[in-house]
Task: inverse folding
């Protein structure tokens, strides 16, 4: 057997509050497609970014063709023949396809300073036709291309570097079935040309078609590397999900008394949410699982009135409401804890206290004038109740850890009368201890009779906490199950829409 | 694809500014027969030429997702500096070069502060406008300064192959800019700054110098505009550039260049400049007071921006806009 | 006092206050006339209209917006009201009309920014052009002189030893202080500026708040226009021009960040005073008034630069 073209050993990378990678090993052979798989937050992207020079690992070594190297920037990576096709395209909308492929590496003509457009289009055309996508005109502006075509341009751009290693990050996410098929043909061609491919994905049904080996990561840890043809889907899910934490998810037995929230065939304008029917009862935790991009957050935004509903109805406590705005929904007793804590949940420049009262401010002081003492007191109470680690309610929230920030987001809603709460990825990026506290809190809220809809990418937690579980796939509900009705593997497979 | 559809598409692809232009010409021709005379059109073009020069620079800045509100100040300063240099007895070519270098430098400072500090360009360029027009006032103590040189009338009144010189200058500036934008890597960087600055970094480009180049170019073109203007008024006037920054941004926006993603181009700016010039001219011919003109043009610009932004908003709902 | 200092520290006004202090010291060294009571009152009077404009703008800047049209609004309101006075409309109604007029234009700005989501500087720059155009049309190039004396009192008169515009400025600053710091509206304005999206998710009626803030800013611009007209005893189209950039400068020098969510009226008071003193000392020293825009340009660029850079350093 050949020597690996790339070998990474004992890679560790820490971010504030999270060990993103913990002594991970990874190797790659020429002409191989090596898949990295794992749940969200498992460290897939972090690992590929370490290889690309976007992150500098704190520990571990990277060897290229047997030589120890240090990759500090994308420029270094290119020097070693490593390039990537990014999930978010790095194309410039109002430049032509050829200009994008050769951006800042233009072919110069004999006239100084002038780009040789003819040569550039010719070369671009050559690469595109090697990818069998001659139909893409190299003179078209990228802005006018479809998603699949844009991706082809990205691949062409990657190839123009004549790389030895290409990293793909969730490349099929934006593509349709037919486009995926064509895309896999390209992958096979690249393989045949001896290019080594790192393929980050969690679409298991694709793996047989393109992959050679799979490396599984979980919580930043290296779980193992297996050959694609030697492992069943069930076994793979087991590796990804792990076991033995079931005690963490303690649920109090309680009555589910009547309907709190129900949607009837709701759709959004973009087709990300299609005819969704869900019901959440009082005192119940309902899980909403699905892959990234399945439309979970979009559904939450529709119900909360952030985005406009295109079709369908929402019922709150049995009464039909026409959803207009978050203000209105909050008045009706709904609350949403958004997935993007820093972007959507908190005003980072402001103090803990001001963040805590941000939703309930107008209810606390209906007569316009505020009383700072009352605000401090209210915040103080929440800080004690939720055990938020902060020296004072006046601490600027930016300086708190992720887990404590998340508790502040929860505190915002505890101060309101909301009895229907949507938790969108409540434990993303926070440490295990804070996770436990949040689980306990959610259980307590449900026991108090609140209705909770929980969106999560972490299979364990969504399975462990939910009384009922919906699985969303490409905007549609594909499964509804009671607690314990489906095995974890079955749920995993349904999420990935492998036939179960 | 059927022929009919492609025709329809073609109609659809005609920029709104062209329709506006055609409509305006039609209306004004009906309202005033003098308007459609060849000599009048010639006048319009000569009047429009210096505005085109400065607007091209502003267009390049807008394509890079910036904005330059300092051009009026730079124009004033240029007229004053050039005449001052001439009065000091500096040879005219040297004076031109010195003046243009200063204009270029002013733009460069704009760009450097914007890029280095990541500061909203409107505030930087407004501040710069205050500085440059203030310097112009200080130099002249508020008065116009006069000087005469035969080159002035050559710049304003001579012809090259029957084409009036101001139009030749504007044409050359247009061609050079077109070449830079679409045929050099610096041009590609302009679109990169506007459309996806991340791609610039990944391409190993120093973003700061890219921005500096863009703003310097705008400063240089404002300087050239100032030279044409000084030749026309045969003097250096510290308030001669007032309002030009607005007309330049207006012409650019009306011409279809957008504040986001680097959409647009200098072709549309020609139409925008023409439209402004025609409206000004027609309102004069018809006898509408200049008072109404700025209100009218202001409203047009606002309308153009609203259309531009709401078209974008339609696509991605509820995005947040910033200063 | 300790509390005051702490609050200033929080609002980042301490630096500006120190700046003001040093400036006063230097000025009194440069010119012995500087610290004379009549000069101090002159400074206060000169700063009052700038201050009224800037305080309104402060609220808008806290929402992470900006309003470049306020000086044009002030001129427009001044011109309209001068004509109304000439037509014999009672002063009380003229004030009401002027303030409402400013509010309506402000609301229009709020609509452009909040509803249509135009970048604030673009929207308000456009409004500025339209409003100045309207003033031009209305005035036809004329200047209106000779307004009723009971109107000009609001510009040149005194209440006790204190000029009326100063009293007006103090009242308006007080109102803003309460509005921004002591009401739910004010806190929501800060939240919106600190994180627009989080404000949406916190069920704050963001659009309504933005409409209101721009309207209030327009109203203060209207008041400033009225007082300016009264002080000049005249109205003309260009009367607001000198304030254009100075308002933004006063706000930023006072520690209200263009990035929103921080700062407040107290800082703006200091900012407006600093600018006015700079101009005043230049006058006392006999420096050409033409050099003033240069100084103001340099001051604004350098403060914005320092503001943003220091903030970036803190984040890192």
Result:
């Amino acid at each position: 057997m050949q020597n690996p073209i790339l070998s990474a050993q004992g890679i560790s990378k820490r971010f504030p509050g999270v060990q993103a990678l913990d002594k991970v090993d990874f190797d790659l052979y020429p002409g191989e497609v090596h898949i990295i798989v794992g749940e969200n937050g498992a460290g897939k992207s972090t690992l590929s970014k370490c290889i690309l020079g976007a992150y500098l690992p704190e520990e571990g070594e990277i060897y290229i063709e047997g030589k120890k190297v240090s990759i500090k920037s994308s420029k270094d990576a290119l020097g070693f023949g490593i390039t990537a096709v990014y999930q978010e395209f790095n194309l410039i909308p109002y430049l032509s396809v050829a200009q994008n492929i050769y951006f800042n590496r233009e072919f110069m003509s004999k006239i100084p300073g002038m780009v040789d457009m003819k040569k550039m289009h010719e070369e671009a055309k050559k690469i595109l036709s090697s990818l069998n996508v001659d139909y893409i005109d190299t003179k078209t502006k990228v802005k006018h291309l479809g998603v699949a075509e844009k991706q082809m341009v990205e691949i062409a751009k990657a190839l123009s570097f004549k790389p030895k290693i290409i990293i793909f990050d969730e490349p099929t996410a934006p593509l349709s079935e037919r486009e995926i098929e064509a895309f896999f043909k390209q992958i096979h061609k690249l393989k045949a040309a001896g290019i080594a491919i790192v393929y980050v994905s969690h679409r298991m049904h694709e793996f047989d078609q393109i992959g050679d080996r799979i490396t599984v990561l979980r919580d930043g840890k290296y779980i193992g590397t297996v050959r694609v043809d030697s492992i069943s889907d069930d076994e793979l899910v087991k590796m990804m999900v792990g076991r033995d934490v079931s005690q963490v998810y303690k649920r109090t037995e309680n009555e589910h008394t009547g309907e709190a929230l129900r949607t009837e065939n709701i759709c959004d304008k973009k087709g990300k949410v299609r005819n969704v029917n869900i019901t959440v009862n009082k005192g119940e935790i309902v899980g909403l699982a699905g892959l990234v991009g399945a439309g979970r957050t979009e559904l939450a935004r529709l119900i909360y009135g952030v985005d406009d509903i295109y079709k369908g109805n929402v019922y709150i406590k049995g009464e039909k409401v026409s959803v207009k705005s978050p203000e209105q929904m909050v008045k009706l007793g709904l609350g949403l804890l958004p997935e993007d804590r820093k972007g959507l949940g908190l005003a980072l420049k402001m103090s803990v206290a001001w963040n805590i009262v941000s939703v309930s401010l107008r209810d606390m002081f209906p007569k316009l004038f505020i009383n700072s003492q009352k605000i401090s007191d209210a915040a103080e109470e929440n800080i004690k109740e939720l055990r938020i680690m902060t020296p004072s309610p006046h601490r600027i929230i930016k300086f708190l850890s992720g887990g404590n920030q998340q508790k502040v987001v929860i505190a915002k809603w505890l101060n309101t009368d909301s009895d229907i709460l949507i938790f969108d990825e409540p434990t993303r990026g926070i440490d295990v201890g804070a996770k436990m506290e949040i689980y306990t809190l959610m259980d307590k809220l449900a026991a108090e009779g609140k209705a909770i809809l929980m969106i999560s990418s972490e299979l364990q937690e969504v399975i462990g906490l939910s009384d009922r579980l919906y699985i969303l796939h490409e905007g549609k509900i594909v499964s509804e199950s009671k607690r314990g009705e489906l095995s974890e593997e079955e749920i995993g497979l349904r999420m990935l829409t492998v036939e179960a | 694809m059927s022929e009919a559809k492609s025709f329809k598409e073609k109609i659809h692809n005609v920029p709104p500014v062209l329709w506006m232009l055609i409509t305006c010409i039609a209306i004004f021709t009906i309202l005033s027969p003098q308007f459609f005379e060849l000599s009048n059109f010639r006048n319009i073009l000569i009047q429009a030429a210096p505005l085109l020069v400065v607007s091209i620079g502003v267009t390049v800045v807008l394509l890079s997702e910036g904005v330059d509100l300092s051009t009026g100040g730079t124009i004033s300063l240029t007229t004053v500096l050039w005449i001052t240099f001439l009065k000091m007895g500096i040879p005219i070519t040297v004076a031109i070069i010195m003046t243009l270098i200063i204009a270029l430098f002013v733009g460069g400072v704009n760009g450097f502060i914007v890029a280095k500090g990541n500061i909203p360009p409107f505030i930087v360029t407004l501040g710069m406008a205050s500085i440059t027009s203030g310097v112009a006032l200080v130099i002249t103590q508020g008065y116009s300064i006069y000087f005469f040189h035969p080159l002035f009338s050559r710049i304003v009144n001579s012809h090259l192959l029957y084409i009036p010189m101001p139009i030749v200058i504007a044409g050359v500036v247009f061609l050079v800019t077109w070449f830079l934008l679409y045929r050099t890597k610096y041009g590609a960087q302009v679109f990169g700054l506007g459309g996806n600055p991340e791609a610039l970094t990944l391409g190993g480009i120093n973003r700061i110098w890219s921005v500096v180049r863009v703003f310097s170019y705008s400063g240089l073109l404002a300087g050239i505009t100032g030279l044409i203007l000084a030749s026309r008024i045969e003097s250096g006037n510290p308030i001669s550039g007032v309002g030009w920054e607005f007309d330049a941004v207006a012409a650019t926006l009306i011409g279809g260049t957008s504040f986001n993603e680097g959409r647009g181009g200098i072709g549309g700016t020609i139409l925008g400049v023409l439209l402004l010039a025609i409206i000004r001219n027609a309102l004069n011919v018809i006898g509408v007071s200049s008072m109404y003109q700025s209100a009218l043009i202001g409203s047009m610009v606002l309308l153009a921006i609203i259309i531009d932004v709401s078209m974008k908003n339609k696509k991605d709902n509820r995005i947040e806009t910033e200063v | 006092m300790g509390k005051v200092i702490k609050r200033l520290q929080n609002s980042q006004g301490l630096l500006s206050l120190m700046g003001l202090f040093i400036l006063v010291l230097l000025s009194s060294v440069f010119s012995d006339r500087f610290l004379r009571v009549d000069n101090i009152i002159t400074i206060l009077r000169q700063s009052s209209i700038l201050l009224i404009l800037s305080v309104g703008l402060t609220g808008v800047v806290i929402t992470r917006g900006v309003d470049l049209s306020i000086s044009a609004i002030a001129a427009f309101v001044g011109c309209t009201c001068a004509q109304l006075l000439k037509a014999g409309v009672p002063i009380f109604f003229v004030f009401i009309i002027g303030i409402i007029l400013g509010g309506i234009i402000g609301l229009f700005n709020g609509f452009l920014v909040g509803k249509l989501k135009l970048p604030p500087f673009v929207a308000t720059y456009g409004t500025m052009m339209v409003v100045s155009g309207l003033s031009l049309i209305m005035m036809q190039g004329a200047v209106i002189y000779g307004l009723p004396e009971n109107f000009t009192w609001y510009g040149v008169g005194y209440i006790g030893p204190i000029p009326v515009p100063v009293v007006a400025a103090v009242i308006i600053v007080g109102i803003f202080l309460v509005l921004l710091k002591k009401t739910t509206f004010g806190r929501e304005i800060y939240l919106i500026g600190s994180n627009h999206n989080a404000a949406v998710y916190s069920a704050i009626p963001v659009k309504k708040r933005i409409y209101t803030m721009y309207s209030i800013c327009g109203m203060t611009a209207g008041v400033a226009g009225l007082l300016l007209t009264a002080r000049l005893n005249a109205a003309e189209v260009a009367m607001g021009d000198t304030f254009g950039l100075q308002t933004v400068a006063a706000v930023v020098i006072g520690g209200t960040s263009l990035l929103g969510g921080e700062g407040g009226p107290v800082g703006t008071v200091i900012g407006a005073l600093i600018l006015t003193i700079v101009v005043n000392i230049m006058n006392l020293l006999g420096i050409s008034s033409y050099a003033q825009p240069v100084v103001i340009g340099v001051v604004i660029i350098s403060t914005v630069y320092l503001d943003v850079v220091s903030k970036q350093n803190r984040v890192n």
